[in-house]
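Entry 14. Ran structure prediction on the chain below.
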Amino acid sequence: MGMNVEMLAASEGDALWVTFKDACECPFNILIDGGRLATGRLLVNRIKSTLVLPFRLDLLVVTHVDRDHIEGVIELLEQCDESQLVIGGIWFNGYAHLPASSMESCQLQEQGAAMGNRLETLIRQRRIQWNQEFNGGAVAWKESLFPSVMLTSTLRATVLGPTPDDLRALRPKWEIECERAGLMPGGPKAPDLVLAEQAGARLIDFDLLCNTPFIDDDALANASSIIVLLEDLERAGRNVLFAGDATAQTLQRALAALRGQRADLRIDAFKVPHHGSERNVSLDLLKAVRCSDYLVSTNGKYFSHPSDATIARIIRHGQESSVPANLYFNYRSHRTEPWCDVQRQIDLGYTANAAQSEQGISWP
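Output, structure tokens:
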């Protein structure tokens, strides 16, 4: 079976269900982010409808504090008790994992859940193993030391981000960022899942889009995203880079350092950061990733993601590298429909795969 990635319907956010199975072991289940509130409800229904309970989720990864990644996770933990859902461990950088502002010390400060953050409270209440593989510290890489964890005998997870500096920069802004993310107790609830509108193929100036100047994302919460490379060491063609909402600069720096250590590094699929925002995917980043398959998670409803410039850059990179791009969209929306046009795919030399239902789409 190997690795299977489901990009669940998550509104404008991410909810990535990864199932890994080899010939000798039971399935290893990973959830990377949980989308918005409605996505959390879908996850709850999925768990509760399982034939044998409690269901075991071996690893839960919450990449960062943005609401469209974390709200569904909170709903899942609040609505599924331990008789229904057992979580083997969680990777999440909370307030306790943000280094102090002093540049002289990178020692992590054990401040606890200073803000009464709902997710941190749930983790502690349920006594979930929190960042256990990192000795309870931050999920991060430092000075070209990339933590690698063997999740099973043939599934390896390597952390490519964030860095302690990324986390340190977030610390003074933590309360503001969490409030923006809707994490404060009593904060507004997200609307129910709404399918994005469909539209026909609009006119696109491909060359103009490819030449759109790139300006890197400067959002601190995005820069703090946990970036994970999952590698199937037994089967070729099943290595996936999950980038959260990471910045292009962070990703490029990490990939350059990691490739310097591992000449055989291979990436087959790339969950593009920040839902295909044009400020998170540059041509230089695509050259650093070097893959053929691109996973885009968003319904385009609120922030008009993915950007046409991002999709054009991905296709252009495929043309220049002679490795045609394969696009996977978890919604067929007004943003993705034009790129699903068959004639456009033929003319520009790429393929597009879009979800045909509310269930999202699977890779490969």
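The radius of gyration is 19 Å. Will compare against last week's run tomorrow.
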